[in-house]
What we know:
By secondary structure, the protein is mainly β. The protein has one domain (2-197): Alpha-ketoglutarate-dependent dioxygenase AlkB-like (Jelly Rolls, Sandwich), CATH 2.60.120. The chain has helices spanning 18-34, 84-93; strands at 2-6, 9-13, 51-55, 59-63, 66-70, 102-108, 114-117, 129-135, 137-142, 152-156, 161-164, 173-179, 191-197. It starts with a strand and ends with a strand. Succinic acid binds next to strand 9, strand 12 and strand 13.
Amino acid sequence: MTVLRLRGFEIRKQYLNKETQKSVLDAVRAVAETAPVFSPMTPYGKPMSVRMTSCGKFGWFSDRSGYRYVSAHPNGTPWPRIPAPILDIWEAVSGVTRAPDCCLINFYGEGARMGLHQDKDEADFQWPVVSVSLGDEGLFRIGQRTRGGTTESLWLQSGDVVVMGGEARLTHHGVDRIKFKSSSLLPKGGRINLTLRVVD
Ligand code: SIN
Ligand code: MN
């Protein structure tokens, strides 16, 4: 395993071995059975290309009235708990003792992307954000704390774990595209990203 540092982002390449990737994937599938993935509407009225669901005390949601954390899935059921194999990753890499209260699960099918944005809807930015990549490779772009300016990109692969803390906590980031079917982890192709955060 190698650790790359780019603009304050700590990128642990191949942190999860194949076996752990599979157990995390099984845990994600179990969450999606109670809390099915959905396509959130952006505040601008266009559905996002990424499909998502969540687990934990809070889940991520958006519609015409904006982006926000909510305590139940749009179908009304409370979000499932964050499964142990996912909490284990946070415990090992976050460097903090408080547990995360949201795990956002993003699913990127062929052609899905995520525009440059900041993670800034949490109460306290001292807590890091931990992101886990599974399945197809995704072209991750890192910008600056303010909008605009130069960016740097790198491919995130299945098993890579990224910690955004300290100076990088409010840095813009996004996913330009995925390399569809570049990984065999998901039989039908696609990329899963888990984002773990402390919310309140
Ligand atoms: C996100 O920032 O919401 C997702 C990042 C990723 O998919 O790697
Ligand atoms: Mn983000």
